Automatic annotation (TrEMBL):
ATP-binding keyword on record: yes
Protein name: Myosin motor domain-containing protein
Lineage summary: Eukaryota, Metazoa, Spiralia, Lophotrochozoa, Platyhelminthes
MF-aspect GO terms: actin filament binding; ATP binding; microfilament motor activity
Family per similarity comment: Belongs to the TRAFAC class myosin-kinesin ATPase superfamily. Myosin family.
């Protein structure tokens, strides 16, 4: 990767060219191409975020075909193609259109229309005609209405692109209808004249949105059309920025009206009218008409700076075109004169100025200087001048029709409000006239074209920008749903394994605007209904309700608006960036109603057209229907925001019920100059469109798809009989393999076949090649089908064999499972019996070990064998009863017998241990005696003769005496043997020691001890206990303890014998039963 070209972020150009110097530990060190070794131009980027440069001169028509697919190469490809006059580029099925700001010859000619007709998307260079043709063919094949959404910021070329698409559809597929197509096309100049204006960003900026429907019948022939418009920017009528103009038709009227008409209307130059003079007053003229206007029509700026220039605009010629279109739309000369009178009346009305009244009643009055303007306005509008003056300076309120004088500011607002309402309803009338002029018949489907202003962000943003940006939020959400979310849902539903693409959901921003009770529009309507509504109070309510919302904050958080107070606006974070809205005029612009006096004024007009426009009984527009629903027309509020919200929601509903195609228009520079490309702003526009996310999704996904049956029906007629007999899925498998298509270029879903971007066009192109190539393809398809069927037969046979083996295997396993389950159930039922049986086996082994131990205990063998045999007998008896079956012995009885047997075995084991201990003690004593005897035999007298070790007198019961003496009486504390028997033991060991008297004393003492031991045998247990407690010598106390222990052992033996006899008796009773 070292020394490769890469793209580095740049604020002005979006990205600049650089190169990778090194990559170390997943960190790439890059240098700008203009750095020239400057250390400050070095950048460290994560290697995974590195944006590599596309190979030289690789500028594909579809950005999905880029080798290094990222937003930097997307921007560069769009730029390089634009500089070469290739202003259109695809991102899968989405068209990017860059405004060239000059006319490219032959790009929209009739020959070009014929060239794109019937061609699949991607077979020819990108073009709006290709999108239009795709929409038509999708409508025809899928029997579903289609929509083409043309979006972009002001000056990006939306209106021109919409006209190109409309022209292609009407001329390409509507030649037989004639009048319908011509009426739809011709309506554009008229609507542009009354709804477009020059702004700083665009010379022909649409100041309204429109949705054009081109209707088709069951034969896919044009059978009608209609137009719906959205939120005309009425505020432009009364106020414009210095570099901007009012609506085009005012200037067309000044430039093109005849002198008699100008005198009748009282028109001079734009400088003489307040509604025009505050903006740009120059005309658009083509070079040939530069000097065509007389001096009395020119403004001062026109004389000094000359006319404005745009390749599409000419006020003089456009006036003639507008008159022609009016005539075609059914507006005769009388209606046209009424329209001219209304427009001139609006201009004269704008020159009416008010001043404070000097009367005692207060209020305002019209200045004497503007009285001629009032008279002229009232004359043109067909209204009495005095009545108009009164209606502009007072208003009637309450149920008693009280007349209230207006303040100076209120009179100006009433004048401007009257002018805006008249113009707005005149525009509604023109749209209605266009719709009526287009013949209508029964439609089956339609193709809709949406042309609406893109995201707007100015230095001062008011209610119009708020509504436009709200609309773009809704459209962006629809784009996300249709292109991103629904695309991934389709992949999941059809079983295609395609990675998901994350995108930002803007539902929270939409809820902030349109929530029912707490949305900004709802708060604005609530404020507008108050008697003393106030913009500052409205703004405070917005901040109070949504102060914790991350989408909304106070203006001072942005340095550009730090001088704007919190109560004067709010900062809203849209999907395309943050916009600060100034709320000063929100309440006035949200109200589409006039007070009762002005409404009555319009109803009393002698101008038939003006009176008809404001007659609720002939209401066609949303606003007039609202008027009709109110009693006596006495209403002071009709919400523009609610009307716009309802229109947009209806539009979104309509779009969701149709197929959708997108054309994204890009404004290359702010100077409106050709061959200039500003990378930074263009990159932001591409991001706002969500095209970088689409690029990733389309690269991983399959943007082209169609139903199996529909595609089968479309190509079946051109294929031979061999392929027609196939069912659709097999049909396409054969075709794709015969054409050598890569398996990754298409996917079969549950009900549709999906193609990678551009691959469906290749498939269509190959199928429609010359017959020779088609015959070769059919031969390849036939061979593939034969091979496929052979492989399928082999696979079927193998599958049958495997199935048979699997069935046998499952049967064997089923038997094994049954065996284990049954065993488990039985073990669960007799688990305690099994545990007892296993325990009895262990007890048998233990008793066998005890019996073997008694083989080495001869003194205790008799008793030990008897105990072991008795326990073994009871154990075998219990085993026998268990083996006879669990049903013969209840678990409680088994548990009782087993616990009793356990106790007996433990006692036998304990007795064996005790016998072993006694045996060892006896042996130890015998060894000591033997050792002492050996020592005595070795002892000799002084004369060398052995001393006789046998005592002169033998005492009786010496053995008993020794056994009765406690063991510790025979051992000293330090382990050496001492005489503890008053010399008796010493007499046995050595008769030569001591005198005969001492020997007799010892013999007497030992006799006393033996006598005491014999006496303890005759004592009762209670006497032994009492004597032991009061014994005077340790010897007596020990003798008593030993006798008590002997009796305890005898008692235990007695109990064991009794228990054994009881068990034997119970065993006999059980056998008898």
């Amino acid at each position: 990767m070292d020394s490769k070209g890469c793209w580095l972020p740049d604020e002005i150009n979006g990205y600049v060219l650089g190169r990778v110097l090194k990559v170390n530990n997943d960190v790439a060190t890059c240098q700008s191409a203009s750095g020239k070794g400057d250390v400050s131009q070095l950048f460290d980027l994560p290697a995974k975020d590195l944006l590599l440069v596309e190979p030289h001169e690789h500028q594909p028509d579809d950005n999905c075909a880029l080798i290094n697919l990222n937003e930097a190469t997307l921007l560069e490809n769009v730029k390089q193609r634009y500089l070469k006059d290739k202003i259109y580029t695809y991102v899968a099925n989405i068209l990017i259109a860059v405004n060239p700001y000059y006319e490219i010859k032959g790009l929209y000619s009739r020959e070009m229309i014929d060239k794109y007709k019937g061609m699949s998307l991607g077979t020819l260079p990108p073009h709006p005609f290709a999108i239009a043709d795709k929409a038509f063919r999708d409508m025809k094949m899928q029997k579903e209405s289609q929509a083409i959404i043309v979006s972009g910021e002001s000056g990006a070329g939306k209106t021109e692109t919409t006209k190109h698409v409309l022209r292609y559809l009407t001329e390409g597929y509507g030649a037989d209808a004639g009048v319908i197509e011509q009426r739809i096309i011709d309506s554009n100049p008229l609507l542009e004249a009354f709804g477009n204006a020059k702004t700083r960003r665009n010379n022909n900026s649409s100041r309204f949105g429109k949705f054009i429907e081109l209707a088709f019948d069951k034969n896919t022939a044009v059978c009608g059309g209609s137009l719906e418009h959205y939120i005309l920017e009425k505020g432009r009528l009364v106020r414009q920025s210095p570099e901007e103009r009012n609506f085009h038709f005012f200037y067309q009227l000044f430039a093109g009206a005849s002198n008699p008409l100008r005198r009748k209307l009282g028109l001079t130059t734009p400088d003489d009218f307040l509604y025009l003079s505050r903006g740009c007053t120059r005309y658009f003229l083509q070079p040939q008409n530069r000097n065509a206007l007389s001096e009395d029509r020119l403004s001062q700026a026109q004389r000094e700076q000359g006319p404005l220039y745009d390749i599409k605009l000419d006020d003089l010629e456009d006036f003639k075109t507008s008159l022609k279109v009016m005539t075609e739309m059914g507006l005769d000369e009388t209606a046209q004169e009424s329209i001219f009178s209304i427009l001139a009346g609006i201009l004269h009305l704008g020159n009416v100025v008010f001043q404070e009244s000097l009367s005692t009643h207060g209020g305002c009055m019209i200045t004497p200087q503007s009285q001629p303007s009032l008279n002229m306005a009232s004359k043109l509008l067909g209204i009495d001048a005095a009545t108009m003056a009164k209606a502009l300076t007072t208003r009637i309120t309450g149920t008693l029709d009280l007349t209230i004088a207006l303040r100076l500011e209120e009179t100006s607002n009433a004048r401007d409000g009257l002018a805006k309402v008249i113009y707005d309803r005149l525009f509604d009338l023109l749209v209605t006239s266009v719709n009526r002029a287009i013949p209508q018949s029964k439609k089956l489907t339609y193709i809709g074209l949406l042309d609406i202003a893109g995201f707007e962000h100015f230095d001062v943003n008011s209610f119009e920008q708020f509504c436009i940006n709200y609309c773009n939020e809704k459209l962006q959400q629809f784009f996300n749903e249709r292109i991103l979310r629904e695309e991934q849902i389709v992949y999941q539903r059809e079983g295609l394994n395609v990675n998901s693409v994350a995108y930002i959901d803007n539902q929270d921003c939409i809820d902030l605007v349109e929530a029912k009770d707490s949305g900004i529009l709802a708060l604005l309507d609530e404020e507008s209904r108050l008697p003393n509504s106030n913009s500052e109070h409205f703004t405070d309510e917005v901040h109070r309700y949504h102060g914790d919302n991350p989408r909304l904050t106070v203006p001072r958080k942005d340095k550009k608006f730090k001088n704007l107070r919190d109560s004067e606006g709010f900062l809203l974070k849209h999907f395309a960036g943050s916009v600060c809205y100034t709320t000063t005029e929100f309440i006035a612009k949200n109200n589409d109603a006039l007070h009762h006096s002005l409404e009555e004024l319009l109803h009393s007009s002698s101008n038939d057209l003006l009176r008809k426009m404001h007659n609720p009984k002939e209401a066609k527009s949303w606003t007039l229907k609202k008027l009709q629903s109110n009693i006596a027309g006495k209403i002071n509020f009709i919400s523009v925001g609610s009307k716009f919200k309802d229109q947009i929601n209806d539009l979104i509903t309509k779009l969701r019920s149709s197929g959708t195609n997108f054309i994204r228009c890009v404004k290359p520079n702010s100077n409106m100059a050709d061959h200039e490309f500003e990378g930074g702003p263009c990159l932001l526009q591409l991001r706002f469109f969500g095209l970088t996310d689409v690029l990733l999704l389309m690269q991983q996904g399959y943007p082209s798809r169609t139903q199996f049956g529909d595609l089968y029906s479309a190509y079946k007629p051109i294929l031979p009989q061999e392929l027609r007999r196939l069912e659709p899925r097999m049909f396409f498998k054969a075709l794709f393999h015969a054409m050598g298509m890569n398996d990754d270029d298409y996917k079969f879903g549950v009900s549709k076949v999906f193609f990678r971007a551009g691959k469906f066009a290749e498939f269509d192109e190959i199928l429609r090649m010359d017959p020779d190539n088609l015959s070769k393809m059919v031969e390849r398809a036939r061979k593939w089908i034969i091979c496929y069927r052979w492989r399928r037969a082999i696979y079927t046979a193998r599958s049958v064999i495997r199935l048979r083996e699997k069935i046998a295997y499952r049967q064997r396993n089923a038997v094994t499972i049954q065996r284990y389950v049954r065993g488990w159930l039985v073990r669960k039922r007799v688990s305690y019996y099994i545990q007892v049986n296993r325990a009895l086996g262990r007890m048998t082994e233990e008793l066998t070990q005890v019996r073997e131990a008694y083989n080495h205990l001869p003194e205790f063998q008799g008793k030990g064998f008897a105990n072991v045999d008795q326990a073994m007998f009871e154990l075998h008896e219990l085993k026998r009863r268990i083996r006879q079956g669990p049903g013969l012995m209840a678990p409680e009885e088994l548990r009782t017998n087993f616990e009793r047997l356990q106790t007996n075995v433990r006692e036998v084991q304990a007795e064996a241990v005790e016998h072993r201990r006694l045996e060892e003690e006896q042996r130890r004593k015998e060894r000591k005696q033997k050792e002492e005897a050996e020592k005595k035999n070795k002892t000799k007298g002084l004369d060398g003769e052995a001393v006789n070790s046998t005592p002169l007198i033998k005492l009786r019961n010496v053995g008993n005496l020794h056994s009765a003496v406690p063991a510790d009486f025979l051992n000293s504390p330090n382990g050496s043997e001492q005489v503890q028997t008053n010399g008796l033991d010493g007499a046995y060991r050595d008769g030569s020691e001591g005198t005969f008297t001492n020997s007799l004393t010892d013999i007497a003492s030992r006799a006393a001890m033996e006598s005491f031991m014999l006496r303890t045998h005759d004592m009762t247990f209670k006497e032994l206990k009492s004597y032991m407690d009061s014994a005077s010598s340790d010897f007596e106390r020990r003798c008593c303890e030993r006798e008590m222990n002997r009796r305890y052992i005898a008692l235990k033996d007695f109990k064991d014998v009794k228990r054994s006899s009881t068990l034997m008796k119970n065993g006999r009773d059980g056998r008898q039963h």
